[in-house]
Amino acid sequence: MVEPAEAVALPAPIDMLLAAAVARRFYLENRSKVEIAKEFGISRFKVARLLDTALAHDIVRIDITVPAEIDVTLGRELTEEFGLRHGIVVDLSRTEDNTAGRHQDVRWLGTAAARLLSEIAVEGDVIGLDGSEAADALSEAVIRLPLCDVVQLTGVHGQDLAHDAAIAAVHRTAAAGGGRAFPLHTPFLLPDAVTAAVLRSQPATAATLDRFGQVTKAVVGIGAWDAPHSPVFAALSERERQELREAGACAEMAGQILDTAGRMLPTTLTARTIAVGAAELRGAAELIGVAAGGDGTEAVRAALNSTLLTGVVTDATTARRILRYDDAGDRAGTATSLRRTERGQR
Fold first, then answer.
1. Running DSSP on this structure, what letter comes out for residue 251?
2. Phi-psi domain of 329 (left: phi exceeds 0; alpha: psi -120 through 50; beta: other)
């Protein structure tokens, strides 16, 4: 006989104890409703009602400890607007009071990027990671990958060439798939072109550089080119900075400077840096850019305009600002059409 469908009332202590016992077995011991029903001599329908009532009477409280979530709608709008294959938007609104601030936001974005990489990677891929915080966060979050080699795309920004975060990120990510790691134990920026050329010729460095052209999927951070932590901005003279400002410099991505339209701007630093080139970035079948709003909405928009990206991972606030942006004239429509055409040819 099927029991009534109304919720079980809990007027007596014995009923509260029964609901607690059922809830404990279901939520903590992962036992099925059928198993619980058999143990207590009740129907599985009553087990279901006891579980509902346990929630209603605060016997069970569900606490979701992750303060961020995926906004599917915004992600879909970004992919449609910019002709992307992947648009992952993380709603970080619940983390605004977090004292960790921007650092914690990047951790959540890196976690989302790790999930995306795990979904699109296939055995035999060569994965590229730059030296950004986003790549580091991805490496800490990724759990499993197919058998893939992992290549470091930019030299080290810090002083410790043996234990820099970028090197550790490459090793962690490679370990997730059981593949080989190809780190760069060299500085990103050298004092002159001759020194950079000598380091590029070193066997270990050359082995990594030779794999730039083999990268099939890459994840890079997107940031404002004039941010205080930008290694490129810090190395430029004031005259060069002013020239780049006048040229519309807006974003930095894997050591490359982009203007507001997404065009790469040449700098005098190219000969002195050890990093992936524009052509090699464009040659990757998948290039995922990761950026939080603190890194500059305009910078993210510039990267999206570049036609380089096939995917983006960003926060909901940044996504909304980008999607509300209304470019004057026909230039926006032309740029979007061009992006989709170029990506279709890749």
1. E
2. left
In this predicted model, what pLDDT tens digit does every residue of 214-272 receive, in sequence order? 999 999 999 988 877 677 787 788 888 898 889 899 999 998 899 999 999 888 788 88
In this structure, the dihedral spanned by the alpha carbons of residues 325, 326, 330 and 331, taken in order and rounded to 10 degrees, is -30
Question: CATH says 69-344 is which class?
Answer: alpha beta
Give the Cβ contact number of residue 316 at 10 Å.
Answer: 20
Domains of the chain, residue spans: 1-63, 69-344
315 within 8 A of 293, measured Cβ to Cβ: yes
Which H/E stretch holds residue 100?
none
Rounded to two decimals, what is the model's pTM?
Answer: 0.76
- Which residues, in sequence order, are CB contacts of 152 under 8 Å at separation 6+? 128, 129, 130, 131, 166, 167, 169, 170, 182, 183, 184, 208
Cβ atoms within 10 A of the Cβ of 198, count?
12
Enter the tokens of residue 193: 């072109």
CATH code for residues 1-63:
1.10.10.10
